[in-house]
Design goal:
There is one protein chain. By secondary structure, the protein is of the alpha/beta class. It has helices at residues 2-30, 45-58, 71-80, 94-97, 126-133, 160-169, 184-193, 222-226, 249-258, 261-269, and strands at residues 34-40, 62-68, 85-88, 101-102, 105-115, 123-124, 151-155, 179-181, 197-202, 211-212, 214-215, 233-241. The strands form 2 sheets. Strands 1, 2, 3, 4, 5, 7, 8, 9, 10 and 12 form a 10-stranded mixed β-sheet that branches. Strands 6-11 form a two-stranded parallel sheet. Strand 1, helix 2 and strand 2 (62-68) form a beta-alpha-beta unit. Helix 2 packs antiparallel against helix 10 (261-269). The radius of gyration is 25 Å and the shape is elongated.
């Protein structure tokens, strides 16, 4: 009887050890740890900062670093393998996809056209907007406003916001900028303090320091964007070299978090739109 009890105890201990070992191994395989590097679009800063903070709270063994170098630079970095994820505030070009990059759309952003608060023109057609940026319309009086020169502000070459804006209006390589600035925040601040200025920024940074214009009579709201009525909208892309399923554990963990309820809540909280799947 004593031998049977000892044997049963040994069997139970062995089973417990095997089970614990399996759980420990599984936990090790599923737990992300180490570093995760992202780089790219300045327009995605607000979302990435909020997402990184929430992700690291949930995954304390991972350190996330994000550099805001512009969409073009971010795409180049992930292509070279110097970062895990390249952030782009425009869709990937065919030539970029041909290098093995995969376009992972995580959010939809509207591009808001902004003027200084004293500007009386609140609504503009997409045709007239194009004419402002290619230099055909140069004074607000041509649009029913005050006799005041239009100061055309935009982003620097390589900016995803600029690429998307010019592509949507079909004015690539035609724009005549008074100033080209290197961040969304810089454009917002410059337009706010410059009489007669016009610029474009990511919708999620729009605040009451400027006036957000209607385009073709349509306000940039979530419903109007998802319905396709608002012209100036673009994807926020987190590009990977190869499919997400083929990436390292940290990248897989990141995208799983982004697609979770917690991650989706972050996207909505910063004023972006969840893309239709």
């Amino acid at each position: 009887m004593k031998k049977k009890v000892i044997a049963a105890c040994l069997a139970a201990c062995l089973m417990a050890t095997m089970t614990t070992g399996c759980k420990s191994s599984a936990a090790k395989e599923n737990n992300a740890s180490g570093k995760l590097a992202l780089a790219g679009s300045t327009s995605m800063e607000k979302m990435c900062e909020a997402m990184s903070e929430s992700y690291m709270d949930a995954n304390p063994n991972v350190t996330v670093t994000v550099e805001y170098t512009g969409s073009g630079a971010g795409i180049e970095s992930v292509t070279k393998g110097s970062v895990d994820i390249g952030n782009s505030s425009r869709g990937l070009k065919d030539e970029e996809k041909s290098k093995g990059l995969v376009e992972n759309i995580v959010a939809i952003d509207g591009i808001a056209v902004i003027t200084d608060k004293d500007n009386g023109v609140k609504d503009i057609s997409s045709e007239d907007l194009s004419k402002i940026y290619d230099g055909e319309i140069t004074n607000w009086s041509q649009l029913g406003g005050e006799d005041k020169p239009i100061v055309v502000i935009g982003r620097e070459a390589g900016s995803g916001t600029r690429d998307a804006f010019e592509e949507l209006l079909e004015i690539q390589d035609k724009c005549k900028y008074a100033q080209e600035l290197d961040s969304t925040g810089a454009v917002l601040a410059k337009v706010a303090k410059t009489p007669g200025a016009i610029g474009y920024v990511s919708l999620d940074v729009l605040d009451d320091s400027v006036t957000g214009m209607k385009i073709d009579g349509v306000e940039p709201t979530e419903k109007q964007i998802l319905d396709g009525n608002y012209k100036l909208q673009r994807p926020f892309v987190m590009a990977t070299k190869g499919e997400v399923k083929d990436q390292n554990a940290n990248v897989k963990s990141w995208f799983k978090f982004v697609e979770s309820k917690q991650g989706q809540d972050v996207i909505k909280k910063v004023g972006l739109i969840i893309p239709n799947k």
